[in-house]
Amino acid sequence: MTEVFEYGVIVAFIYTFLTLSYLVIKTFSFGKKQLLSKPQGEIQKGVIYALGKGLLPWEKESASRNLPTYVAGVLYHSGIFLTILYTLFEVFSIVLVNWLLHFFQTFILIGFLCGLGLLIKRILKDSLRKISCPDDFVANILVDIFLLSAFLNTFYTGIKLIFFSVTILLLLYIPAGKIRHCFFFFYSRILFGIFFGRRGVLPHKPGRA
């Protein structure tokens, strides 16, 4: 029975990757806007900034004004990516040495707690709750359950089928819901860096507001 769910996780991974890739390719159907102005900067530097220094809180006004939320978000997403990696280890029956297992346990738990905290904040804070849609809550809850089931699985493999079931459900939901931003985030940051790097806006030059 476990093997069936392992294959299910693999198939779900493939489906999610192909679907997200199709969505990215589909964006090219809008055509490419012809840029007539002369480049004022370097595209490569813009992309490097967008994927590097540009992600730091002091480079983003909204993040610097909400530093605890920013840190929680970073830890949350780090926990998610590590949980996905842990899931692949489980699917392919790769045995983890003790220190690596403890590493996964620690960050998966931290990710879960941060995700739960962000969910509670969205529920309790009136300004956030008003701009939230059902998908915001479903996505957060589904990911939190994924993290929790993975964490419990590190201690008790008897829930592996539950863990794999949640994983499959999450993977199938990703292309349809807001969780797909985990894939489009990097794509959009690259486009952002290309556009503003070419214009010479990124990276910010000393003395420029």
Structure notes:
With 209 residues, the protein is mainly α. The protein is 70% helix and 0% strand. The chain has a domain at 2-13 and 61-176. It has helices spanning 2-26, 43-51, 61-64, 67-91, 98-124, 126-130, 134-153, 160-173, 181-198.
Task: Write down the oligomeric state.
Answer: single chain
Summarize the helix and strand pattern as letters. Answer: HHHHHHHHH
Average pLDDT taken over every residue: 89
- What's the main sheet like? none
Shape verdict: globular
Low-confidence stretches: none
Summarize the structure.
With 209 residues, the protein is an all-alpha fold. The protein contains nine helices and no strands.
